[in-house]
């Protein structure tokens, strides 16, 4: 297949290795015999989502997030149409908040979100930075990673992580985290979450194939990723049990 | 009475702490419990110099202390690195009389960037050096702009800011502040035309988010930037490195003072520049500063030479969770010419707290090791798989994984005599340096 990945605001929304989610997805899809194009969507530029296979945005600072919102909200209808059409999307870190109804910053200013989902985000001066050991209904393996957020998100009815043994969820400690509806995935987990979680990478690849009505062949995951996940999961699980 | 009691308890606590080898924060903590505003009640020296920022705090503080002491000044500073309010309190009260007068000409403080506002609640620095603000310790700091927001309330209007004009973010502290002095490195031979590294924090203006342009870049996003919209731009420095020859180990300050570089890293240049600016603001002549800092060897253990078998080794301490610290040390290795092996260890991400967070590895430009003289790269430690996965996305070919640090050292010792560079953090350095086959120098 010829696969088209749209990477939104790769320099602006790029905290802590966020770009690697695109890198690992591209390499995996290529290893499966596909031809993959990654298009960098810059601030102020036009974006054609009609033939996209994967839409991605990473994490940014809160001020960068507002600049991203200003631009991305202009694409609201196109993003909603793509989501309805089953295009796979991943919003990592605080780009998740763009999908909701509103974002309220730490000074109380309210920004309109895309309204793709019904949740609302309220940002605080206090940050929650913490390792994550959680669980999702999508697969058995634990979800590992790191949360770096300053927001409380209410109104998520379909979270990506249904529970957490460690980490700060949408509304508080150890609660559900992220958002998942159809082919749209979002999580406040920071950084290369698809590298850290091979099972989540497989979910993304399967979603891309599903959107194309193609049978998904076996998905290759290299040993370093698998062993890296296993060690981190073991460390975090042991920490949870202390 | 509470003031007197707090001072006595702090002095006693420090005395006992030294006997039993405990850290320097606890006595200050007790003193603050007894008298929360004790720092308002003591009589501080005429010069209070604070140094904060993501990188270079400790080195800059040590250089300032060395220069000022060479000028006969009585300088007290938190040499043990206890840089939060408790450690600062311990330092101040330990050097105070029972009446509360601090016996020193200069109080020099390395200040934790996130807690500076707490440290300076009851007093403020006369000079405040801010070295830079980078991605650093995600696990504590969130991101550089949240650190900026944390430092801002610590800045008193009467404080003179000494800022790195080459850093687009930390230079924003000058906005609305009247007393500012700038230091910066002028255009030099090793510059690039555009930002380097894996990520580009200089792409957009930190003030208005419009695109930024660069006339030249010293490293990563540090250089001569200017916003295309709001005018935020590198200021003309008050204190400048006007000529730099890293290979030759020569730095010229303000066109007339030559410093011989003991460690030929761009980081060292910026630390010297910051120290130079602070000392000049304290009235020290440029020639005297250059004389003291020439061939000055940092004593903070961040660079350690050693032998391992036939290999001469250099340990380059690179804070885990700080990609620019890594990038700078990798750049140093790339700039050397002799064949070498590089050992990278990520075993404990932090020595102070638990975390399994390794996202920061993806912000490091490991491709700098894709150089002909780098013959072998060994990845070791608990998080070697995360390192290895990162390396699969580089052009570096000659890397391998050896899980155990002793095994990695044994493999290096077993063959060759090329130079060895070890890149790791304080949390992991002694796991190598304490091995029986490793013989430390100096």
Structure description:
The complex is a heterodimer of chains A (242) and B (442). Chain A is an alpha/beta fold. Chain A is built from 6 helices and 11 strands. In chain A, the strands form 2 sheets. A 6-stranded mixed sheet of chain A has the order 2-1-3-4-11-10. Chain A is globular, with a radius of gyration of 17 Å. The model of chain B has no long low-confidence stretch (mean pLDDT 92). Chain B is globular, with a radius of gyration of 22 Å. In chain B, the strands form 3 sheets. A 9-stranded mixed sheet of chain B has the order 2-3-1-4-5-6-9-10-11, with helices on both faces. Chain B has a 7-stranded mixed sheet with strand order 16-15-14-17-13-12-18, sandwiched between helices. Chain B has a two-stranded antiparallel sheet with strand order 7-8. Chain B has 2 domains: 242 residues, UDP-N-acetylmuramoyl-L-alanine:D-glutamate ligase; 138 residues, Alpha-Beta Complex (Protein-Tyrosine Phosphatase, Chain A). Chains A and B meet through helix 1, helix 2, strand 7, strand 8 and helix 6 of A and helix 7, helix 8 and helix 12 of B.
């Amino acid at each position: 297949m010829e696969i088209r990945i749209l990477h939104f605001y790769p320099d602006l929304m790029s905290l802590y290795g966020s770009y690697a989610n695109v890198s690992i997805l591209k390499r995996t899809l290529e290893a499966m015999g596909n031809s993959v194009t990654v298009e960098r969507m810059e601030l102020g530029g036009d974006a054609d989502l009609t033939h996209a296979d994967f839409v991605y945005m990473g994490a940014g600072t809160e001020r960068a997030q507002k600049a991203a919102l200003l631009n991305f909200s202009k694409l609201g209808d196109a993003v909603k149409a793509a989501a309805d059409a089953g295009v796979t999307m991943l919003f990592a870190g605080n780009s998740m908040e763009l999908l909701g109804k509103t974002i309220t910053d730490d000074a109380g200013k309210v920004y309109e979100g895309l309204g793709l989902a019904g949740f609302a985000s309220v940002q605080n001066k206090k940050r929650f930075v913490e390792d994550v050991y959680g669980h999702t209904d999508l697969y058995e393996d634990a979800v590992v990673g790191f949360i770096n957020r300053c927001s409380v998100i209410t109104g998520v009815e379909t979270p990506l992580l249904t529970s957490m043994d460690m980490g700060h969820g949408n509304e508080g400690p150890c609660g559900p985290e992220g958002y998942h509806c159809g082919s749209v995935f979002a999580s406040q987990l920071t950084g290369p979450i698809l590298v850290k979680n091979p099972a989540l990478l497989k979910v993304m690849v399967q979603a891309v194939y599903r959107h194309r009505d193609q049978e998904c062949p076996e998905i290759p995951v290299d040993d370093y990723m698998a062993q890296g996940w296993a060690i981190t999961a073991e460390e975090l699980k042991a920490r949870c049990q202390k | 009475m509470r003031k007197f009691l707090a001072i006595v308890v702090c002095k006693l606590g420090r005395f006992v702490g030294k006997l039993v080898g405990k850290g320097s924060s606890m006595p200050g903590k007790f003193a603050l419990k007894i008298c929360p505003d004790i720092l308002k009640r003591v009589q501080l020296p005429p010069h209070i110099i604070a140094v904060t920022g993501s990188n270079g705090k400790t080195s800059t503080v040590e250089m300032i202390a060395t220069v000022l002491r060479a000028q006969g000044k009585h300088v007290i500073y938190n040499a043990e690195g206890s840089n939060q309010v408790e450690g600062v309190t311990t330092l101040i009260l330990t050097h105070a009389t029972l009446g509360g007068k601090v016996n020193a000409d200069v109080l020099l403080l390395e200040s934790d960037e996130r807690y500076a506002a707490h440290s300076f609640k009851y007093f403020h620095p006369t000079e405040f050096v801010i070295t830079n603000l980078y991605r650093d310790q995600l696990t504590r700091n969130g991101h550089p702009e949240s650190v900026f927001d944390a430092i801002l309330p610590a800045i008193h209007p009467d404080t003179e800011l000494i800022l790195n004009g080459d850093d687009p973010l930390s230079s924003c502290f000058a906005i609305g502040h009247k007393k500012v002095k700038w230091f910066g490195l002028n255009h030099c031979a090793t510059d690039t035309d555009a930002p380097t590294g894996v990520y580009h924090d200089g792409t957009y203006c930190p003030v208005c988010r419009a695109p930024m342009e660069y006339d030249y870049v010293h490293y990563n996003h540090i250089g001569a930037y200017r916003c295309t919209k709001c005018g935020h731009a590198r200021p003309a420095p008050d204190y400048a490195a006007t000529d730099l020859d890293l290979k030759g180990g020569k730095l010229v300050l303000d066109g007339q003072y030559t410093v011989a570089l003991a460690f030929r890293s761009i980081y060292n240049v910026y630390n010297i520049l910051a120290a130079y600016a602070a000392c000049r603001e304290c009235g020290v002549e440029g020639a005297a500063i250059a004389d003291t800092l020439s061939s000055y060897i940092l004593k903070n253990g961040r660079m350690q030479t050693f032998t391992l078998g036939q290999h001469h080794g250099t340990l380059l301490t690179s804070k885990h969770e700080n990609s620019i610290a890594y990038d700078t040390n990798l750049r140093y290795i790339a700039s050397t010419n002799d064949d070498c092996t590089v050992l990278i260890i990520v075993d404990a991400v932090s020595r102070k707290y638990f975390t399994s967070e390794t996202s920061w590895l993806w912000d490091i430009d490991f491709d700098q090791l894709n150089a002909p003289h780098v013959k072998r790269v060994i990845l070791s430690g608990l998080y070697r798989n995360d390192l290895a996965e990162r390396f699969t996305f580089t052009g570096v070919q000659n890397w391998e994984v050896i899980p155990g640090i002793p095994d990695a050292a044994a493999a290096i010792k077993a063959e060759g005599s090329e130079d060895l560079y070890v890149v790791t953090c304080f949390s992991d350095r002694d796991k190598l340096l304490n091995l029986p086959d490793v013989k430390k120098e100096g």
